[in-house]
């Protein structure tokens, strides 16, 4: 992307040579994104991030169906979806929030029972950003079609981790974000199936075939295109991440007592594990590991500054002793065996030290019961 920050600075909408140079680069990037998704280039709209893509898709779906006022989503969505749905409730929309079981899995019978003739949109993430659990997207999409509802999928976590083919999918709109694919922050894309009614969320110029106004972020778009190309070529080797993740997970469960994996270990992303360390706070674990150059998270990066327990893990009904001590490890194609080994070397002593200092590490059952009651009551 560097040449498009320093040399090729034209506006892709311009007719002159500088515009033509960058216009070709944008076209190539659109083709690269489409290839990763199994889509047509004309079905790709460039955005600034996943949050914009989610907002654009949901608002477009509702605008296209003004007589339908019902939305279906889940309790474990990213805040980009949940906060928008809460906002829409204040505007008179009815939102059904589907629950998940203790393994973070969706109940298809509940999806079916929630659909009505007034359902305008079903919006469900492809894979959860905290647990990595993958939802039965195609089955949900087929159900939505039976009721004439549009189907939007937040696939920010899934794109580049599992193969996708929009040409044979039940998905109408799909969101992706560049920085989850090793592209820069501040660039994303929205897939909109050909023929889907779409009214722009960002009104302005004619860019993106009139579907997203505003001068294109050419360096970001070029970088996203290349990132998608690299991600597509890496899909054949995705087992590398899965093997390292499984080794990390097995080692932690073997070496550290009172630890559990949060979420289903069957249908999940190959690069994600969420582990609960009982009787200690997740923030303390993160701060301690950070001293060794090890970075993990206790929830969505968009909300991890909060001391509140993860809304995803709460929706799964996890006990307090696990809820507050859970952290997520995310791997990439650049993660090495040595890096995983470093975590395994550092973590057991870190957990033991923190538990020794913890006010509730000595099986204080009464205290834990009270905390769990307070947590579930929120």
TrEMBL record:
EC number: 2.8.1.7
Gene3D superfamilies given in the database record: 1.10.260.50, Aspartate Aminotransferase, domain 1, Type I PLP-dependent aspartate aminotransferase-like (Major domain)
Function: Catalyzes the removal of elemental sulfur atoms from cysteine to produce alanine.
Reaction equations catalysed: (sulfur carrier)-H + L-cysteine = (sulfur carrier)-SH + L-alanine
Cofactor dependence: pyridoxal 5'-phosphate
Stated name of the protein: Cysteine desulfurase
PROSITE patterns assigned: AA_TRANSFER_CLASS_5 (PS00595)
Aminotransferase class V domain location: 1-343
Quaternary context: Homodimer.
Lineage, opening ranks: Bacteria, Bacillati, Cyanobacteriota, Cyanophyceae, Oscillatoriophycideae
